[in-house]
Amino acid sequence: MLYCRECIMPSTRPEQVFEDGICDACRSARRKHGEIDWAARRTEFESVLQRYRGDGSWYDCIIPVSGGKDSCYQAITLKETYGMNPLCVTFTPCELTEVGRYNLDFLREQGFDLIQVSHNRKSYRELMKIGFTKLGDCCWPEHIGIFTAPIRVAVQYGVPLVIWGENSQFEYGGPASRRDNPYLDRSWLEEFQMCGHRISDVAHDGVNLNDIKTFLYPSDEEIKRVGVTGVFLGHYEKWDSLRNLQLCESRGWQRNPDGPIEGAHNDYENLDCKWIGGLHDYMKFIKFGYGRATDQLCIEIRAGRMTRSEAIAALAATDEGKVPWKYVPDFLSRVGLNEQEFTATLDSFTNKAIFERDRSTGKLQKDAQGNLVRKFFPADVA
Ligand SMILES: [Zn+2]
């Protein structure tokens, strides 16, 4: 397990490509701050918007929102800077938090119409259980819903342009062919968000497809009829999470009132879902050896706001990699599992090569709280 020489991302991150010891997200960051002609990209964006901009009598773009700082920034910018008439669409996460609800209301207070697509809880529970036990991702249905619901609304409301936020492959690493791609479509969704499990596969797990309509992507014919196209705002303007945060906060948007969520470094990301902050990120940690705090600190390094050594010290001060017990009882009662089943499932997804094991029994070493012992931690490089 290697760590990038510029940030603290390990080589175990899926889709990550290292060159000369540097991850592709750090190489993207150099291009972002040095090579890309952002003025030209903005002109390009204006010409895209010009094709769709209406007279205000109907919506002319869809903004998928979670109520987070980035999606609130997107909506405000598209309306106030670019003169568009956005319709915001949110997919209700597994379990919406209070601050998540507050920030969705904040968006409405800012003058945006919001469509909230909410799954039925009965089959959502089943999907969450499949995600947790079979795919190692408790928020698997949420990832699908987030990317499907806005497309469904675009078709239903006849609003072809869907504007997403950052291009995650460019900002955080991924295949080169996707890094400079301004578009998000069904193939992107299937490649990056579905853990290799299509929503139709759950029929084999005993879920009735008629019960999960909110998760079904519109047909190619429907998409073609409306001409739905999705673009990343982050392809056309230089993405800056701190700028997004500052704009939203200056208008009343709220951070997490309890400080950083479990396993995180900051208190202003992934606030909307009870499970995505703690358990989802913990499952990433046991599979790949890093969690949300690492992601957040890498962003700080690449933005030039923190040195690598400062990030390593800050990472050590977080609770990344600790079992996120806070909402576990809620989660287990929701999906109908007990604590033994919970622990056995986590163990089955743990990458045994990156955590300490007992020499004689080969069992994973754990402390009294059930926390694993990491074998690897980023260190200063000469
Ligand atoms: Zn890096």
List the keywords:
globular, two-stranded antiparallel ribbon, 7% strand, binds zinc ion, 46% helix, 382 residues, Rossmann fold, mainly alpha, 17 helices
Describe the structure.
The structure is a single chain. α4 links the parallel β4 and β5. The protein folds into 2 domains: 34-241, Rossmann fold (3-Layer(aba) Sandwich); 262-382, no CATH class. The two termini are 18 Å apart. The protein is globular. The protein has 17 helices and 7 strands. A 3-stranded parallel sheet has the order 3-4-5. Strands 1-2 form a two-stranded antiparallel ribbon. It is mainly alpha-helical. α3 (69-80) crosses α12 and α14 runs antiparallel to α15 (308-316). The longest helix is centred in the middle third of the chain and has 18 residues, at 140-157. It has helices spanning 24-35, 38-52, 69-80, 98-109, 121-135, 140-157, 168-172, 176-179, 186-192, 220-226, 233-236, 241-250, 274-288, 292-302, 308-316, 328-335, 339-349, and strands at residues 18-19, 22-23, 61-64, 86-91, 114-117, 161-164, 229-232. Zinc ion (ZN) binds next to β2 and α1.
